[in-house]
Write a structure and sequence with these properties.
The protein is α+β, with helices and mostly antiparallel strands. Helix content is 21%, strand content 19%. It has helices at 61-68, 77-87, 91-102, 108-113, 133-148, 161-168, 174-182, 269-272; strands at residues 7-8, 195-203, 206-213, 226-235, 238-247, 256-262, 284-287, 290-293, 316-317, 329-338, 346-347. Helix 1 (61-68) packs across helix 2 and helix 3 packs across helix 7 (174-182). The two termini are 31 Å apart.
């Protein structure tokens, strides 16, 4: 069993709930996952003063951007979503604070010190100063998550908006105003299940994928959620396919993780055939009605990743067998998610 000379991950995009995956021709059927009807998406809930600030926002970066489009915070939706993914603090709640405290970045304090959450510090006027709005969002979300939202925090009073309001601001109506502002961001217009993925590492017996959740549903929202990886090994026009499952990482929208996929063993090249083939060494995979072709020469040997909607994300790693011969290439044809209570699955990429 040789090492890889070239490994490419051909991936397709957004995992849309209950959207069948179609092959373009009868010959593609063997490499096409079954039609999905996986876990349901949780319903959007408006925030109230009784809401716990650690509940998922069920929004994407694009949803936040749409709300902030005409403010000084335009284009920073991804930073609020990333802050939620890393700290657990609801992104809508964070946006609501910036709206109430500093007019979504338009106040003098925000414009001169990038202070969006009105935290005190050693900057001018006794206020905290930050190098950028992005840093203010990340730093403040981490502090709120640790000190206001969770037991053991110095300002923890229960973790609801009302509880935080009692120690965050002198205005008794602060919590109501923050919740009202947060609710201007309505139900997500994005896909519930979507993501990006690229091949991070290859070893005997397993692959390592780098995955990112770009849908609005947390991947651990479904009980016992599993990612199903539909893969193919190919060599000179011959191929073998398989499906393995692995526990879905607990990622909210914008979250990223490396994911080990065990039980994926590189077959012997002799098993797949060694017949010479002229012309382009194309790798065609039918995924959700689209054919994705592996380029003959990757742009570079590093890893790349693009949004899985609907373009291919590709990653190339180079090595040689002991004889310098070409080894089989691996292709990730599709990734789907399913819950423990459902026999079917929703594709993460289509």
């Amino acid at each position: 069993m040789g090492f890889f000379r070239r490994t490419a991950a051909a991936l397709a995009a957004v995992l849309t709930l209950a959207t069948p995956v179609h092959a373009e021709s009868p010959g593609d059927v063997a490499d096409t996952p079954p039609p999905p009807s996986g876990p349901p998406a949780p319903a959007y809930q408006q925030l109230s003063t009784d809401s716990n600030v650690l509940t998922p926002s069920l929004e994407t970066a694009a949803d936040i951007d749409a709300f902030l489009a005409r403010t000084p915070l335009a284009g920073l939706g991804a930073d609020f979503i990333r802050a939620e993914a890393e700290t657990g603090v609801n992104a809508r709640f964070l946006v609501g604070i910036t709206w109430v405290e500093n007019n979504s970045g338009a106040s003098y304090l925000a414009q001169t010190q990038h202070n969006l959450f009105s935290f005190v510090g050693d900057g001018p006027g006794g206020w905290a100063s930050y190098p950028s709005f992005q840093n203010s969002i990340q730093t403040s979300a981490a502090y709120i998550g640790k000190e206001y939202a969770r037991p053991g925090g110095i300002h923890y009073r229960g973790g609801t908006i009302a509880a935080i309001s009692s120690v965050y601001a002198s205005d008794s109506g602060w919590g109501v105003k923050v919740a009202r502002a947060a609710n201007f961001i309505g139900p997500s217009q994005g896909a519930p299940f979507a993501g990006t993925v690229h091949l991070a590492a290859v070893a005997d017996g397993h692959l390592t994928l780098h995955v990112a959740n770009q849908g609005y549903v947390p991947w651990d929202a479904a009980l016992g959620a599993q990612l199903l990886v539909h893969y193919r090994w190919a060599h000179r026009g011959q191929s073998v396919t398989g499906v393995v499952s692995v526990a879905a990482p607990a990622l909210r929208s914008g979250g990223e993780a490396d994911l080990a996929v065990p039980g994926v063993v590189q077959p012997d090249a002799a098993r797949l055939g060694r017949r010479p083939r002229r012309g382009r060494q194309g790798l065609l995979a039918a995924v959700a009605g689209r054919k994705l072709e592996q380029p003959r020469r990757p742009a570079h040997s590093g890893s790349t990743s693009r949004t899985l909607s609907p373009v291919a994300a590709q990653n190339s790693r180079a090595s040689t067998t002991s004889a310098g011969a070409r080894a089989p290439t691996s292709s990730i044809l599709a990734i789907a998610i399913r819950s423990a209570s459902s026999a079917s699955a929703s594709p993460v990429n289509r």
